[in-house]
């Protein structure tokens, strides 16, 4: 018993240490303004930057809500030719990050001499085409869980299919749609590459410009703190809506699946045309244009591409593994602790996803510098080479910023583990390790695999954080293509961009059937 108590205390101490490591970058962001001279002032034009950020994120969110909700309703609730294929095709824009949309569509518009693309309306449209799958996936899962009895009752009361959609299905899907819209809003507000390419003075890009290009650390810190407050507020709202969505799902488990409307003739043709247009504009056209640009490139530089691919895969493996390890430790600590403050603290690190990558990176850099200075003051040993010239800071930053993905995957998987299984295992004389290996792991495997694939895809696409923290001598795919595109050399940017798209596309195609199977299984339960 003494040995068990010692191991439990040791595990709690290790989990607490990981909690402090995960919270440190988040806390560092909020103390940024106090680390710079007192005469630091707000940059000129801050209200206009805030307005541009809200306009870009709000416009992209509204358009993504329209595209994602309409596509989810058609694929999940209607029957028409090509429905199954469109279910996957409408998910594929996840493989193209927004900055690739901006580069490709901007280049196509320049080649066709079409004006008006490089502006706020064009940026909102392109961001919505890249990010609507957030709304699409949440809306589709919500529609799949809705009751066929309610749909049938609405039809008996005289509702047309459109009336049933607006009066029954849409209000019931409101929590899920809210989560998707908030994720789109956060992603759009965090952007720097689209804002730079389209000449938009958003807060995220101005933080990056002031910090790296103009050397105004104080102004960048003030803008970063403003973005951090907005991000944390959005994360709190998103977390609240997730809890409402979970309660809503549990209340519908005794219902059957939703009924399907059969579309024929012109309606079926219109549904096919709408889904095809969204898939073409969101994925097929930019992907094919990127492939054509890559094939026409005169200099592929295969050695640099191979090195960038190796760096990207290693980074995704290390950061993904670290993120799942930290997420598992925090989930265990949250469930074992009796203190409400500890349970809340275990949730807060997931809020790093709501912060712009450049803001989160600033906190990590200053934190690493403070640790190195403190270690040097205590021991006389300089650790700057370890904290600034290695991949350790970048791996930890990526792992902590994307904790929301492994945390969500573990939560969904543990929902399938009944407490009675633990009681049965204890009655059978099984140890906790044996129960974890023989019962929990098989039940958690689908959620862990799907979450791991999505996490790897997000890490591969991450630009601001990787651009800011990558060690010298390493060039992952996202910073490499950003460097070429910033120099307006799309011929050299196309090969790494195409490689990045193929890599993320493979991961998403592997994750999609797992996500759909998990959604159906959770509904059937």
UniProtKB/TrEMBL annotation:
Q: Which residues form the ABC transmembrane type-1 domain?
A: 50-238, 309-511
Q: Does the keyword section mention Cell membrane?
A: yes
Q: Which domain of life is it from?
A: Bacteria
Instruction: Name any one Pfam family assigned in the record.
Output: BPD_transp_1
Mind listing the UniProt keywords for this protein, alphabetically? Cell inner membrane, Cell membrane, Membrane, Transmembrane, Transmembrane helix, Transport
Which CDD domains does the entry link to?
TM_PBP2
- TM spans (from-to): 12-36, 48-74, 86-105, 125-143, 220-241, 268-292, 312-333, 345-371, 383-404, 439-460, 497-515
> Localized where?
Cell inner membrane; Cell membrane
**Cellular component terms per the entry's GO annotation:** plasma membrane
Record membrane topology: Multi-pass membrane protein
The processes (GO biological process) annotated in the record are:
transmembrane transport
Q: Kindly give the PANTHER family that the UniProt entry links to this protein.
A: FE(3+)-TRANSPORT SYSTEM PERMEASE PROTEIN FBPB 2 (PTHR43357:SF3), INNER MEMBRANE ABC TRANSPORTER PERMEASE PROTEIN YDCV (PTHR43357)
Record family assignment:
Belongs to the binding-protein-dependent transport system permease family.
Protein name as catalogued = Iron ABC transporter permease
């Amino acid at each position: 018993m003494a040995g068990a108590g010692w191991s439990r205390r040791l595990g709690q101490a290790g989990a607490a240490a990981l909690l402090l490591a995960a919270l440190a970058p988040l806390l560092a962001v909020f103390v940024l303004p106090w680390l710079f001279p007192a005469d630091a002032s707000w940059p000129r034009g801050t209200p206009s930057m805030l307005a541009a950020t809200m306009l870009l994120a709000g416009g992209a969110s509204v358009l993504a809500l329209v595209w994602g909700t309409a596509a989810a309703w058609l694929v999940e609730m209607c029957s028409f030719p090509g429905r199954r294929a469109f279910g996957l095709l409408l998910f594929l824009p996840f493989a193209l990050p927004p900055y690739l949309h901006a580069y490709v569509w901007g280049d196509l518009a320049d080649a066709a001499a079409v004006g008006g693309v490089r502006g706020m309306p064009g940026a909102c449209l392109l961001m919505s085409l890249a990010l609507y799958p957030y709304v699409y996936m949440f809306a589709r899962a919500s529609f799949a869980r809705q009751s066929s009895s309610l749909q049938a009752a609405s039809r008996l009361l005289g509702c047309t299919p459109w009336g049933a959609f607006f009066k029954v299905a849409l209000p019931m899907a409101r929590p899920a749609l809210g989560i998707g819209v908030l994720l789109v809003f956060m992603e759009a507000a965090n952007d720097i590459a689209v804002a730079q390419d389209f000449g938009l003075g958003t807060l995220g890009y101005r933080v990056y410009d002031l910090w790296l290009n103009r050397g105004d650390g104080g102004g960048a810190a003030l803008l970063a703190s403003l973005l951090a407050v907005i991000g944390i507020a959005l994360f709190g709202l998103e977390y609240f809506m997730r809890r409402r969505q979970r309660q809503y799902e549990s209340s519908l488990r005794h219902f059957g699946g939703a009924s399907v409307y059969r579309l024929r003739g012109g309606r079926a043709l219109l549904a096919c045309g709408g889904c095809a247009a969204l898939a073409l504009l969101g994925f097929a056209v930019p992907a094919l244009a990127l492939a054509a640009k890559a094939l026409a490139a005169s200099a592929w530089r295969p050695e640099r591409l191979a090195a960038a691919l190796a760096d990207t895969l290693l980074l995704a493996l290390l950061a993904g593994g670290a993120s799942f390890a930290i997420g598992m430790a925090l989930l265990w600590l949250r469930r074992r602790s009796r203190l409400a403050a500890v349970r809340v603290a275990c949730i807060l690190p997931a809020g790093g996803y709501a912060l712009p990558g450049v803001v989160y990176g600033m906190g990590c850099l200053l934190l690493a510098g403070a640790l190195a200075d403190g270690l040097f003051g205590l021991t006389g040993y300089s650790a700057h080479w370890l904290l600034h010239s290695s991949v350790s800071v970048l791996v930890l930053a990526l792992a902590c910023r994307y904790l929301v993905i492994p945390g969500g995957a573990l939560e969904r998987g543990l929902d399938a583990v009944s407490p009675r299984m633990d009681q049965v295992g204890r009655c059978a004389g099984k140890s906790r390790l044996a129960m974890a290996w023989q019962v929990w792991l098989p039940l958690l495997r689908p959620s862990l695999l799907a979450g791991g694939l999505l996490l790897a895809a997000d890490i591969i696409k991450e630009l601001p954080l990787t651009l800011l923290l990558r060690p010298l001598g390493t060039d992952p795919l996202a910073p490499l293509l950003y460097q070429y595109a910033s120099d307006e050399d799309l011929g050299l940017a196309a090969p790494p961009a195409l490689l990045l798209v193929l890599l993320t596309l493979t991961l998403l195609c592997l994750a999609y059937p797992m996500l759909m199977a998990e959604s159906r299984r959770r509904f059937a339960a």
